[in-house]
């Protein structure tokens, strides 16, 4: 009996150790938070276009009633990962026919214009969220973030951080396919 | 050149640690005095080489040597010198080097000052300490070399985060580390005792000063971290039950239990295997903290950059050290003979209850901290455990602890006189109830729990003072006689009184600032008036001001009470163009009665900005300063107790020092 009690701390330590080993799995991300917006209607917003850009502004009504689900990407010229992500999103638009809308988050219009002129503009519409208010409505935890919204205006998927690198692109492609956001046959 | 010297010094330290981990312990089992003695030289050699490495890294930071990757990533030529120096331990690699330095300092400390410890015990202890050194030195050299060069060197460093340029932040890691790495030597003593299979009062006496020293720094480190979060971060709170806070708090709780159980082992030769277990677990929790902070296992606001490879290595170290020591414990502990017997009402029993509650509280915090991980592993659900769980589970336990804390010092060893005890404490109990009722009458509102806590804090404070008064026979004999008794009382006893009173003061601060905190968030144009906790605050407007390296929006708030001007506060929102970051500088009117805490936030949009409206956050936190005062009392109490000459009996080297001459002959 005494031996058993003296052995208890060791057994407890081994059990905790097992959980830690599991927790170290590199695929696990403790910061990944299931979005409260998933399966919820997208928030109401109406954003003006970025001054100096010909792309029209973005409102919730633009997300509703489309043939296929669309993608909303939150970006800013001051955000370095966005620059890397830009190329990936452009490829999705040009090669796979994804429809992309942008929310330009807390960005100076002239910087945003320069950024898009340098890198190209894959966005159909861009709303300028200078105050960050719409970002709050969307429950943004950082920039970039990407949402897939279906034709009823319901948020189907949320990706926090840049869609960059094979794993992230694979996950995002899967989500696009499941949502039916790509025209048939695309995204292979 | 200098970084290479540092790197080489680390390799030499590792070589010495390897020798020290084998030779002395082998000498102890063979009775070879020379081998045992070698630990002394290697332990001191180790501290020298690690100190050289640390100095080399610090030099790289001071001269901003941007050929060193660590300096590039964690410093900037424009940083003030103080923060360049503090940058040495700001990164994962640098802080690990500091960790190892402190480990070596404690090892050398035992080698140097431990002349009263028998040669075998000392040799074994230092060998065990060297095992830990080997583990962490190899970890540093293999996975996180702080001296790695970068080519081509960049023009300037990357880090100029103004938020992190603060005295509190610069000082709190070293203190915290000194605390939780300090428990390593206690761990080594415990493992050495298990290998020897013998624990006696003398053992407890050698261990106590080390435990106490580690505990004091940990207390100061935690308090400083909390103070920093409160004043500098502008969060308006002092404890958030964040995983990284919890991992520093758990060794503190268990270390407190160890401190008390070691007393029983020292005085009564009892609780031996429990004390050993606590010594092992306290350091295990420190290691766990190191692991959690550096592995990205849990979500936290202040973790280091994460690398899974490092996580696996540290987990390996944990498995060997914690698993190994607990296995050794399971094997050897049942053979230890039980010590002195005691009655259910006695000092021993009181300390036993204290230990059980502290251990249960530690278990609760551990469970709450790891629950998200365990749940995710078992069911895949993701949750976070926040303050509601900890408050609901932890506070009642602490209240129970406080009841026994007040009672304990009145109890005598072996068997306490129950009638006499009741006689001495009934007055205190009545006084505490009156204090709580008075609080109820004077303050309306507030949670019931807060009144119970007031009752507990008052009980603890009065009981502690009463016990002290009994010892010096205050008002029973002449004041001069009492004063003489104060001087003759052992310092450890004053230390206990101060520390226990410190807890009561600390509790008052916590109760006041959580139970009666008031908060107003207003969207204010100039001229807006806000009333909070009896203060009338007028927002006069905000203006742009230019600082040395920032531009700020400075709000002007005039504070009046009953029409009379109290003070004018200037909260700022600073923007640092070079670092492209913003900080909130709260303006605080701090008094013993409470803090009036104001901060200003950026306007919601530019249109509103033009109208001159701002978001103001105004908090009133009653008694919050008692938290820091209570923490200071705890630290002073610990230091007093550490300076008690009884802890040094048989240590002639220290007894000759003039400090002890101040203690009159008994």
Automatic annotation (TrEMBL), chain A:
It holds the Pfam family Redoxin. It is found in: Cell envelope. Keywords: Cytochrome c-type biogenesis, Disulfide bond, Redox-active center. GO terms for biological process: cytochrome complex assembly. GO terms for cellular component: outer membrane-bounded periplasmic space. The keyword Nucleotide-binding does not apply. Its main location: other. InterPro entries: Periplasmic_diS_OxRdtase_DsbE, Redoxin, Thioredoxin-like_sf, Thioredoxin_CS, Thioredoxin_domain, Thioredoxin_ResA/DsbE_sf. Residues 36-181 form the Thioredoxin domain. GO terms for molecular function: disulfide oxidoreductase activity. The keyword ATP-binding does not apply. NCBIfam families: dsbE. Belongs to the thioredoxin family. DsbE subfamily. This is Cytochrome c biogenesis protein CcmG/thiol:disulfide interchange protein DsbE. It comes from Rhodovulum adriaticum (Rhodopseudomonas adriatica). The lineage of its organism: Bacteria, Pseudomonadati, Pseudomonadota, Alphaproteobacteria, Rhodobacterales.
